[in-house]
TrEMBL record:
Name of the protein in question: Ferredoxin thioredoxin reductase alpha chain domain-containing protein
Pfam families: FeThRed_A (PF02941)
Described function: Variable subunit of the ferredoxin-thioredoxin reductase (FTR), which catalyzes the two-electron reduction of thioredoxins by the electrons provided by reduced ferredoxin.
Molecular function as annotated in GO: oxidoreductase activity
Any coiled-coil regions, as ranges: none
Single GO biological process annotation from the record: photosynthesis
All residue ranges annotated as the Ferredoxin thioredoxin reductase alpha chain domain in the record: 11-77
Similarity field: Belongs to the ferredoxin thioredoxin reductase alpha subunit family.
Amino acid sequence: MQDGVKENFPVGSHVRVKESVIIYHHPEHRKEAFDIKGMEGEVIAVIKEWQSRPVSANYPVYVKFDKKFRAHLQESEIELV
């Protein structure tokens, strides 16, 4: 599965959140429920290793939305733009 994620969403891809995803760590909405559906960002990593060992991350796609906000997402929650 991890290799498919890397092929579908290579580092540098521009993506949009297509599903409703509630987060609590947005810099402007700390400790409040905030839906990031519709936000666009850039894939900065696909997590498949940790300390040189393979892992099966639940949220393998790491997306940068702006300078201060980044999030780990599932492949099913995003789409290429």
